[in-house]
Amino acid sequence: DCKYIEMLFEQEYFFSCLLFKLFGRREGKEQLFKLKYCVIQDIERKETWNKKSLCFFSTRYELVQRGMFTAKDTGLVPTVYTRNQQLEADNMRLRKDLENYKLAANKAKEAFLKMQKERDFHRMHHKRVVQEKNKLICDIKRLKAHYASYEPVLKQLTEKYQTTLRQKMLTSLERDRAVGQVVQKEKEKRKKKPSQNEFTMLALSSNSPHLSISHFLLSSASSFSQVT
Question: What are the coiled-coil residue ranges (predicted)?
Answer without folding.
Answer: 84-118
